Amino acid sequence: MSKPRYTRRAVLAGTGAAVASPYIWTSAQAQAAGTIKIGLPLALTGPLGSVGQQQKRGAEFHTKLLNEKGGLLGRKIELLIEDTVGNPATCVRKAQEMVERHDCRLFTGITLSSEALAIVPKLAEWNSIFISSDNGDGRLTAESFVPNFFRANTSGPMGTRAVSLYLKDSKLQKFYAIGMDYAWGHNSVQVFENELKRLGREFVGKVFAPTGTKDYSTYVTKIRQSGADAVFTVLAGDDNNAFLAQAAQYQLASKMAMFAEQLEISAMRAVGDACLGMIVSSRYAFTIDNPKNKEFVELWRKEHNGLVPDQFEGEQWQCQQVFQAGITKAGSIEADKLRPALEDIVIDDIKGKVHMRKCDHQGVQAGFVVKAVKKAGFDHPVPEVIATLPAERVTPPCNKMTYDD
Predict the structure, then answer these.
(1) How many angstroms separate the CA atoms of 343 and 77, rounded?
(2) How many C-beta atoms lie closer than 10 Å to residue 8's C-beta?
(3) What is the rounded distance in angstroms from the CA atom of residue 85 to the CA atom of residue 218?
(4) Given CA atoms 347, 235, 63, 293 in this order, what sign does their dihedral have?
(5) How many CB atoms lie within 10 A of CB 208?
């Protein structure tokens, strides 16, 4: 099947068909007839393009299955998909075009936290709801929180907290951290530093690499020479692949233990044995052992030629499930009706129960720690769940990104 072309004028349904939009509906008209539009300004290309592509696949798969059952409120779902290249200004411009040209008032999939932080101040003006599926920056549910924003995914502080709790019983004493030089990287590294100090461990240093860095040799050398027992990485996409491949060349794993906030299967596939043994917080893993996840993985593999769902494909699916539950409960897509419907909503899905906390719209959910291992039937490492942490232990207090205990 040929892939559709994504243009400003293309409205993409979960089946992959492109439908022309000859005029702009008013909100009342959109409610009365036609489709439910969900906008996904995504970093489909650029250093985090692999993350955006995962989000796209997750949303399209959920939309396809939902539309086959008749959609929502008797209306089919249409996805408006645009490439932002990970640029915040481009993300805002393309989201604004979705509002003005297509009367789209529902958003998800905005890939980078820096893009999300640029979008949230516009939500009230657009009378729009944005449900995050991957944005990690803790500020989005803390100091930068706005009422029309919801986070269905595990946040950066939550992922970092999961690793920190796992390290509580470790004998490792000295830690170094490297993060991507933008909102998510700085936020998660700071949370990790705070958590280590609470554990009485020594945080010996940190460094940040610009998004799109290809040569990590100087960073790896600095980490090797730091005297640390372990390194904590906050990297994704092409940056993660480059760092892990070059860390293996310098035999960093023989020098110190390696931990990370997240590690996609796409990275495991790209770097192979270079990531074996890494211990990582997982926002979603296909190996999570519950009936709904097993059903989801089976459906995904049938649709995607035997491939298992990756981390952000699972997170996007969960986000779409929250959208579905909220719209069904509200009986509407209007922001003033959907917002209270989403507050305190609970779904039970591929990661277990997720409670959308009313006070700051953070999805309260369990934390997972995985280890990159070899597994029969796979030609690349996969995430093996080695710890499941209670939601109340990994989710920060309301409107905060730090922890009290």
Answers:
(1) 22
(2) 12
(3) 26
(4) negative
(5) 17
Return the HEC string of 114-161.
Answer: HHHHHHHHHHHHHCCEEEECCCCCHHHHCCCCCCCEEECCCCHHHHHH
Residue 11 has pLDDT above 70, yes or no: no
Comparing CA positions, the residue from 205, 202, 195 lying closest to residue 173 is 202
275 is written with which tokens? 């990531």
Cβ–Cβ under 8 Å, residues 46 and 212: yes
Q: What is the mean pLDDT of the chain?
A: 92
| 242-298 pLDDT, tens digit each | 999 999 999 999 999 999 999 999 999 999 999 999 999 999 999 999 999 999 999
Q: Give the integer Cα–Cα distance in Å for 340 and 130.
A: 14
Nearest to 178 by CA among 226, 227, 235, 125: 235
Decide if 78 contacts 11 (C-beta within 8 A). yes
Q: How far apart are CA 39 and CA 130, in angstroms?
A: 9
User: What is the mean pLDDT of the segment spanning 162-171?
Assistant: 95
CATH fold match for the domains 10-154+289-364 and 157-282+367-394:
yes
Q: Which helix (H) or strand (E) holds 221?
A: helix 217-224
CATH assignment of 157-282+367-394, given 3.40.50.150, 3.40.50.2300, 3.10.20.90, 3.40.50.300?
A: 3.40.50.2300
- Residue 70: is it exposed, middle or buried by C-beta count within 10 angstroms (0-12/13-18/19+)? exposed
Ordered by start, the domain boundaries in the chain are: 10-154+289-364, 157-282+367-394
Give 93-99's long-range contacts (Cβ < 8 A, gap of 24+): 94/8, 94/41, 95/39, 95/41, 95/119, 95/122, 95/126, 96/122, 96/126, 97/8, 98/37, 98/39, 98/41, 99/39, 99/126, 99/128
CA distance 239 to 189: 16
**Interatomic CA distance for residues 362 and 44, integer angstroms:** 25
Question: How many CB atoms neighbour CB 27 within 10 A?
Answer: 13
Q: Are 171 and 151 in contact (CB under 8 A)?
A: no
Mode of pairing for the β-strands spanning 36-42 and 77-83: parallel
Query: pTM for the whole thing?
Result: 0.90
CATH number of 10-154+289-364: 3.40.50.2300
